[in-house]
Amino acid sequence: MLNLKVFIFALLFIFALIGLWLGMKWARMRRVFRFQSRDNLADADWFNCFYANSGLSEKEVMKTLHFVSDALEIPSGLLRPSDRFKIELAPIVGWEYDDGMVELFWLLKDLATKKNIGSLPEINTIDEFIRFVVPLKTDCPGNFF
Q1: pTM of the predicted model, to two decimals?
Q2: Is residue 47 a contact partner of residue 61, using CB atoms and an 8 Å limit?
Q3: Average pLDDT per consecutive 10 residues, the chain (145 residues; last block may be shorter)
Q4: Phi then psi for 99, rounded to 5 degrees?
Q5: According to DSSP H, which parts of the chain are helical?
Q6: Is 140 left (phi over 0), alpha (psi -120 to 50) or beta?
C-alpha cells in the first residue's frame, strides 16, 4: 500500500513538472508571437539600421542587445530600440515572477553601484537601456556579460 502511495505521489509530481515546463514554453512562445510580423535582422543590419551614427561601439551595443535578448528570451533580431519594457516586452500575465527582465535591472543596479550613481534614471525602452549601459560598461573595468 505504501509503494502505491509513493508511486502516485511521484507520478503527480512528474505531471506537475511537465505542466510547469509546458506552461513556461507556452508563455515564451506567446511573448515571441507578439513580434512575428517583424523582420529578424542580422546583427550588422540591426546596428546599421538603428545605431550606425550613434557614436556607440557596435561590439558593445550588440553585446548589450544580446544580453537583453537572452534575458527576455526573444531573438535579438526581432527587438527594436523603441520596444518598451512595460508594453511590448511585458511578461505574459501570470508569468511575471518567472521573467528574465529582472536580470536587466540587476545589471543596471550593479553598474550604478560601481559608478556611484545615486539614483537610476527611468529606463523605459531598449534604446534607453543601451544608451545608459554602453557608456558605463566602457568606463568600468570588468565583464558584466
Answers
A1: 0.74
A2: yes
A3: 79 80 67 81 96 93 93 91 90 62 81 80 94 79 57
A4: -115, 140
A5: 2-33, 43-50, 58-72, 101-114, 126-139
A6: beta
